[in-house]
Each structure stands twice: as structure tokens, then as C-alpha cells.
């Protein structure tokens, strides 16, 4: 264990040496709670993916690559296609409204005109766990793909129409569903797309982004179950007033945990967390 702890200290120190030490933009990204394998902790009913934008640090549950019912999350992919092709302004306006109020009728009308939209967007962004269907409502995607997509959109244009519509989501959807909970309950979220099955009880999903992170969750259960799992999977913010050096230490911690996933010595992870805490406090 001493050898492993020493390796961690070396890695964290190296991260500090390459991290910019000036005054940086404060981050308030939620901090994932991970296990000894470096994966987000959540019940198997829920898959979660998270990415920290400034460094590209990515972490998820063990099942984050599981292709699940895409629900209304796939409306993002449908809208994206419409914005990238020579669609009419009316269709582009409809796509924005579809995202804001999650209107199924609009989605069906647009999908009838652009039947390859979801698959085309999946090909365009390399979303290998996303599949369109004859009806948009039967399409599938994963939390990994959703976060990959959101991060790509942020790099392209953080003020683009898809992300903008997500920041303007209506409190109540077209079908009366209250659009809250899930990843939208995390601190510093700017925009969210919500998804639910017709019963609102069997499957739910959310995809959110903040200025420096993207996060997605899918649950075999209702909104309350998803929200509970998401809230338990994150602390409000490990680095609420952090700087790049602090973030580098935290990233190094999570990556090192993953590298010792085969170890059964719980003390290793406890030692890593202890050292990380000391380093972060020292840098504060």
C-alpha cells in the first residue's frame, strides 16, 4: 500500500507541475462519488455518465455503455440533424419548441420528414450506442453517448440552438409532465432535456450541462428514483471555489483509483482519499 500511495503522490504532484497556477475561472462542477474501480456509484437500475469539460475527464457507472430506451432524449439528435441540414426555418423553430416542451406530436411530424435524423446524428458524432427506429419513440441511446454528444455541442458552439433550447425548458411539458429532477437537480446545471415513458413510472432520463461539465442519467424507474440515485452519486461540489491545480489533483485521484481496480485492499483507496484531501486543502 505504501508503494501505491507513493505512486499516487508522484502522479498528483506531476499533475500540479503541469497545471496552470494563475487565477482561473472558479468551477462548481458536481463531484462524482466513485468506487475502487473509479466508477460512479449507483444502483444497477440507473446508468450515469459525467464529463468535466476543461480536462476531458470522464467517469460513469459500470453500465454507462448500456443502450437503453432513448425516450425524449433522442429529440436532441432529431433536432440536431434539422439544424445541420437545409431544413426550413419553420422546422428549425419547431425543433426548438420540441426540446423546450418535449412535444411528442412535433417530434412525430419532424421524424416523418427526417426519418434518418437520429441515425445520421449518431453517425456524425460517433454515437455507437445510439440507434434510430421506425418510430422515434423506440430509438435507443446510452448515457455515455448523450454526454459525448453534449460535450461535442459545447465545443462546436456553446450558444447553438440545441443547447439554447435546453436552457429554455418549460416547467411543464406538452403532456403535463413536470420537468424537474434527475440531473437537473445537480448544482450549476444550465440546461436539461428530460425524458419519460408514457406511464412516467417505468423509464426516466435526463441529460444536463453546465459551463464546465455534462452529465446524463437513465433509470428503470420513476423520476423520484432517478433523482435519488443521481443525488447520491454526486457531492454538491468538491471544488466549488477550486482552481486548475485543485482540479488536477482530483482528476489524478480518480484515475489512480481506476488503475488499482483489481486490489481488494480498501485501505488503498482510503489512503488515496486522505492524501488527496490534504493536497486539495493545501492548495486552497
UniProtKB/TrEMBL annotation:
Gene3D superfamilies: DD-peptidase/beta-lactamase superfamily (3.40.710.10). Residues 1-28 form the signal peptide. Keywords: Signal. This is Serine hydrolase. It comes from Corynebacterium alimapuense.
Amino acid at each position: 500500500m505504501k508503494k501505491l500511495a507513493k505512486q499516487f503522490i508522484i502522479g498528483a504532484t506531476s499533475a500540479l507541475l503541469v497545471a496552470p497556477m494563475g487565477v482561473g475561472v472558479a468551477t462548481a462542477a458536481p463531484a462524482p462519488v466513485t468506487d475502487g474501480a473509479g466508477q460512479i456509484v449507483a444502483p444497477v437500475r440507473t446508468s450515469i455518465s459525467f464529463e468535466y469539460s476543461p480536462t476531458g475527464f470522464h467517469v460513469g457507472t459500470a453500465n454507462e455503455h448500456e443502450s437503453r430506451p432513448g425516450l425524449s432524449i433522442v429529440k436532441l439528435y432529431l433536432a440536431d440533424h434539422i439544424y445541420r441540414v437545409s431544413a426550413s426555418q419553420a422546422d428549425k423553430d419547431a425543433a426548438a419548441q420540441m426540446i423546450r416542451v418535449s412535444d411528442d406530436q412535433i417530434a412525430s411530424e419532424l421524424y416523418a420528414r427526417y426519418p434518418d435524423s437520429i441515425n445520421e446524428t449518431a453517425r456524425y458524432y460517433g454515437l455507437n450506442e445510439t440507434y434510430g427506429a421506425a418510430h422515434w419513440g423506440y430509438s435507443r441511446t446510452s448515457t455515455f453517448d448523450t454526454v459525448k454528444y453534449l460535450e461535442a455541442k459545447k465545443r462546436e458552439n456553446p450558444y447553438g440552438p440545441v443547447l439554447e433550447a435546453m436552457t429554455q425548458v418549460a416547467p411543464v411539458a406538452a403532456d403535463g409532465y413536470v420537468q424537474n429532477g434527475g440531473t437537473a437537480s445537480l448544482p450549476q446545471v444550465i440546461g436539461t432535456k428530460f425524458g419519460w415513458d408514457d406511464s412516467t413510472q417505468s423509464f426516466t432520463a435526463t441529460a444536463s450541462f453546465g459551463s464546465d461539465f455534462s452529465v446524463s442519467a437513465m433509470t428503470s424507474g420513476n423520476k423520484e428514483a432517478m433523482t435519488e440515485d443521481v443525488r447520491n452519486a454526486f457531492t454538491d461540489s468538491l471544488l466549488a471555489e477550486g482552481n486548475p491545480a485543485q482540479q488536477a489533483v482530483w482528476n489524478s485521484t480518480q484515475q489512480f483509483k481506476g488503475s488499482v481496480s483489481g486490489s481488494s485492499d480498501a485501505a488503498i483507496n482510503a489512503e488515496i482519499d486522505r492524501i488527496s484531501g490534504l493536497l486539495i486543502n493545501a492548495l486552497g
